[in-house]
Amino acid sequence: MDLDSVKRYLEKGGDQNASKFNAMGARFFDPFVMQGLHVDLIEPGRIVCSYKVPPRLLNAGNFMHGGATATLVDIVGSAVILTVGAPRTGVSVEINVSYLDAAYADEEIEIEGKALRVGKAVAVVSVELRKKATGKIIAQGRHTKYLPASSKM
C-alpha cells in the first residue's frame, strides 16, 4: 500500500466528524465501552463481571474490537486495585493483552480481574475475558500501574 493510501486510511472521517466527536465531551470513551457491564462478584482482590458484547464495539471482522478488550482490561483491572484498599488506581506503566478467541455481538462474556500484587508504589493485576457459555478464554491481560504516594499534607 502506498503512503498516501495509509494516510487517507488513518485520517478518514477526521475532519467531517470532528464536531460530533468534540461534542461528546471529556472522558466519553470509558462509558462508551463500559455501558452494560454488570458486577456479579466483588471481594478484596477480585472482581467478576458479566457483559453482553454490544454491536457498537465490533471491528470490521464483526467481532469485539481489540481496543475495546484492552479498555476492559484497563478499567476492570484498575477497579480491582481499589478493592484492596488503595486510595487511587494510579497510572499505567505497562499493559498487555493476549487475544485468544473472538467475541461476537450479543455474546455473553465474563470478565474476571485479580490483584496479583498491590504494594506501596506498584500494582499488578490480571484480567481474563471468557465466553460465558463455554468458559473458553477470549483474552488474557496483565496491567501494571504506578501508585503515587499519598500526600502527607
Structure description:
The protein has 153 residues and is an alpha+beta fold. The chain contains four helices and six strands. It has a six-stranded antiparallel β-sheet with strand order 1-2-4-5-6-3, covered by helices on one side. Strand 4 (108-118) and strand 5 (122-131) form a beta hairpin. It is globular.
Can I get a quick summary?
This protein is α+β, with helices and mostly antiparallel strands.
Q: What keyword list fits this structure?
A:
six-stranded antiparallel sheet, 4 helices, 153 residues
Average pLDDT rating = 89
Number of helices: 4
Weakly predicted, low-confidence segments: none
Order of helices and strands: HHHEEHEEEE
What Rg is obtained from the alpha carbons, in whole angstroms?
Answer: 17 Å
Report the major sheet.
6 strands, antiparallel
Helical content class: 25-40%
Number of strands: 6
Record the strand order, biggest sheet: 1-2-4-5-6-3
Distance between the termini: 57 Å
Shape: globular
Which range does the strand content fall in?
25-35%
Structural class designation: alpha+beta
Outline the fold blueprint.
Elements: H1 3-11, H2 14-22, H3 29-34, E1 38-43, E2 46-52, H4 66-83, E3 91-99, E4 108-118, E5 122-131, E6 137-146
Antiparallel strand pairs: 1-2, 2-4, 3-6, 4-5, 5-6
